[in-house]
Automatic annotation (TrEMBL):
Keywords: FAD, Flavoprotein, Oxidoreductase. It comes from Bhargavaea cecembensis DSE10. It is an enzyme of class 1 (oxidoreductase). It comes from the Bacteria. This is NADH dehydrogenase-like protein. The keyword Coiled coil does not apply. Its cofactor is FAD. One of its GO terms (biological process) is aerobic electron transport chain. Coiled coil: none annotated. GO terms for molecular function: NAD(P)H dehydrogenase (quinone) activity.
Amino acid sequence: MKKLVLLGGGYGNMRVLLRLLPNQLPEDREIILIDRTPFHSLKTEFYALAAGTVPDAEVRVDFPEHERLRTVTAEVVDINMDEKCVYLDNGDSILYDDLVIGLGCDDNYHDVPGAAEYTHSIQTIRKSRDTYREVLGLSGGATVAIVGAGLSGIEIASELRESRPDLNIKLFDRGPRILRDFPERLSNYVQSWFDENNVEVISNSNITKVEPHLLYNHENSIPADAVVWTAGIRPVEIVRNLEVEKAGGGRVVLTPHHNIPEYENVYVVGDCAALPHAPSAYLAEEQGEQIVKVLKMRWNGETLPEKMPEIKLQGIVGSLGKKKGFAFLADRTVTGRIARLLKSGILWMYKWHNG
């Protein structure tokens, strides 16, 4: 029995699973899924888990079940692509015929002293739980600093405002205006929500150092009882250590068929892959779709097209608490209640399609 091994149960590999199972997997093949948790985590909702507005069960989806799918709960510690072998922290090793690396990302601390040691994260479900416990334990009037005003920073700042109205919340934005890469109308709407809800947005910031209960914006020291870091991501360490060609941010350079150039049977999906667009759940899913098509063509001995279809992103959808939101779709800006309902609907549809 030939083995397709999937490293990581994120959005990209979930799409691979759901396209091959239950009846598209050749009879001579089995799938081995390796993940640190025994379930698929809805990473786009970790901000709500960290803010305490949804229970843990709301950000989990069970992996599918199939007689030729084996799930392994473990951490990957090494990948030897020459030996076609994956090594795990429990001492086991697993051989593969085809491998899809979808191990996700870590926070990118940009070499800021103290950032790794003294800030909290929402990159994994475990770290999001830890962040929730930290925030839950703060007394009224405490200050929470959120470094990074991208989608994650905006969503956790707004969700935390609704969860803990007694806290002082400071959101540090490196740009001159929030969501600077999107239409000004969208930026103004989000900024207005923060103004109305007493979230302080500090523009043109540059966090240069973090100490216990203190961070430095340029040369100014700012007291903070807790700091949440949402200022960028990079591939996990095991991928950063792979001796293959990398692009900006340490992401792996791939062929048009999503495999590593020197290894036709090794694919990379999601946050670890060097693609023309910024990493996102939607991008990982669309990439997973194409990987399945390539796998099936190679298994059938078919000639691959010179290029795969261009992946076209749909835009962004974000929340501002449980009642308001914002979206930029097909060059159109949507704000308010409709945008929030749209985000909730997307989440509901995702859960429905994933069982």
